[in-house]
Amino acid sequence: MISNKKVAVIGAGLSGLCFSKYINQIGDLEPTIFEKTNDIGGAWSNSSNRKSWDSLKLNTNQLSMSFSDFLFKNQFPNKEEIFPSNKTFYEYLKSFVENFELINYIKFNSNVIKIEKNVVVDENESNCKWKVVWEFNNNNNNNQSIIYSEIFDYVVICTGAFSKSSTKNDLEIKLKQFKGDIIHSENYRNPELLKGKKVLIVGSSFSACEIANDVCKEVSKCIQIGHENFYAVNTFLPNEDGKHIPWDMLFFTRKSIYEKNNNYKTDQELWEVSKKMLIQICPNQDLSKNPNSKIPIKTTPENQPPIGFTVSRNYYENVESGKIITYTGDNYKIHSVDGNSITFSNDKGEVNTVDKIDSIIVCSGYQIEFPFLENDVLEDICYDSKDQFLPMCIYEHTFPSKFKSIAFIGCVKGIFLTEIEMYCRWVSLVFSGKLEYPNDEKLSQGKNDILKLRSVRPRPQFPILDCVYHCDKIAKEIGCLPDFESIKINDPELYNKLWNGFFCQASYNLIGPGSNPTLAKEIINNYYENYQQFKN
Questions:
Q1: Alpha carbon distances (Å) from 111 to 47, 163, 234, 440
Q2: What's 167-229+333-364's CATH class?
Q3: In whole angstroms, how far apart are CA 164 and each of 276, 361, 528?
Q4: One pLDDT digit (tens) per residue for the chain, 536 residues
Q5: CA distance 459 to 311
Q6: For residues 18 and 381, what is the distance between their CA atoms, to the nearest angstrom?
Q7: What SUPFAM superfamilies would the database entry show (predicted)?
Q8: Is the pTM of this model over 0.90?
């Protein structure tokens, strides 16, 4: 009997759990999941190492955050709860692990410290095996780590986009002069210890705006500073009939996505369409229509990507009411720090000083780190630790050019769960031999495309801009993209749900390797019913 090949999976977050489920279903590979903490979930875990705060709600709805073959056990009891809390999502992941019997594959408290080539199968090292070295500490061995190692046929890196909190050097130097408390967003939990204090939030993207929302309810004054004003997109937006539906239900239908991509071919054309759409859904930030807005948007010049957006239930209202005082846009930054006094400046020459600041919460993002990889692997993926936007450049952010027994899943900024699942399915099929590894031409072209994107200035907000179109592209590679024209003729009702309804990842389980058409149709119907509930 031939034993299964072994796969080392680094991380028990969304990507690691999902990938392990897929290779278990295929049956030709055996996963070992290395998790450095004592819990599953990664950024969404319930451990002290989690990256989320107590009141956090996801900014994509429950259906968007469901795997294609596993819905939440208790779907939202009312419309407001379609955006799950961190706790609800963590419980969902626990039930996912239980349902697919993954717990026995996880090595908790196991921090991978080195991954090195061990057995070279061919002369160019592309199909080498890997020696994984990890330290184990379960707090029951007097805090003395025990070092282990094991040989694996494949390695899949699933450490995510939140490896290490990031603070730029110049900001870090200035903050050393601050006499109060400094917290990074990854360590923020709730405003309890900040009650009655004057608090500064540094940053203007997703975490900064949502933490400002949380903090402003309890503190004496909440101040926010950031380089840019982002479009403040509400979690519920009006559709063409004036009904308020979750923002991602409005954005993510195949009909709207394909119409946009068929009518506008270049990045520059798509950028202009996005600018018009964003200002249409955030009209109160249009400087030409509302010159008194406290977070006005200046449309970027042609041939430049749009300013970024953030999704929040009531951020805009809290700013306009004065609960959050903003120094954002025009490249606002901290100019100097003197004890508890901080001076801000911008490119317009404006200078403002705020005194008696008690605490600072730094929301400056994360770095993606791979401290366990050898230099030649880091060179193969064009790794740049200082680049938060694109720290590596490989085909589809997943497949390296040279080393073909290692892959990366979910280590890219701003991707959705559906994209993570598609990558998991793709890599599992490639490593199990069910699909061929991408050819050299695709690997080279894909790598060059991402290197080109790395050099674009100003940069778009995210490396991957269109979830639906992107997932369909991967589905075509896998062989699980439905034939929509055929479905349109033979099953018009299903076609309407797939094309005009809210994008459903179960559509990729209708055909192709590992498909389950019966279950897929049940979940597609569930999505469509919920979509209609909001739409009507």
A1: 15, 13, 39, 33
A2: alpha beta
A3: 35, 16, 39
A4: 356 899 999 999 999 999 999 999 999 899 999 999 999 999 999 877 788 899 999 999 999 999 999 999 877 767 778 999 999 999 999 999 999 999 999 999 999 999 999 977 666 667 899 999 999 987 666 667 899 999 999 999 999 998 777 777 788 889 999 999 999 999 999 999 999 999 999 999 999 999 999 999 999 999 999 999 999 999 999 988 889 999 999 999 999 999 988 888 788 888 899 999 999 999 999 988 898 999 999 888 888 888 899 999 899 999 999 999 999 999 999 999 999 999 999 999 999 999 999 999 999 888 899 999 999 999 999 999 889 899 999 999 999 999 999 999 999 998 999 999 999 999 999 999 999 999 999 999 999 999 999 998 888 899 998 899 999 999 999 999 999 999 999 999 999 999 999 999 999 999 999 999 999 999 999 999 999 988 87
A5: 19
A6: 23
A7: FAD/NAD(P)-binding domain
A8: yes
Question: Do 5-163+367-478 and 167-229+333-364 have matching folds?
Answer: yes
Residues 6+ positions from 377 with CB-CB distance below 8 Å:
115, 370, 400, 403, 406
Two tokens, residue 23: 């290779």
To which CATH superfamily is domain 5-163+367-478 assigned? FAD/NAD(P)-binding domain (3.50.50.60)
Report the candidate in 474, 380, 483 with the shortest Cα–Cα distance to residue 435.
Answer: 474
Question: Per-domain residue ranges for the chain?
Answer: 5-163+367-478, 167-229+333-364
CA distance 226 to 388: 17
DSSP state of 417: H
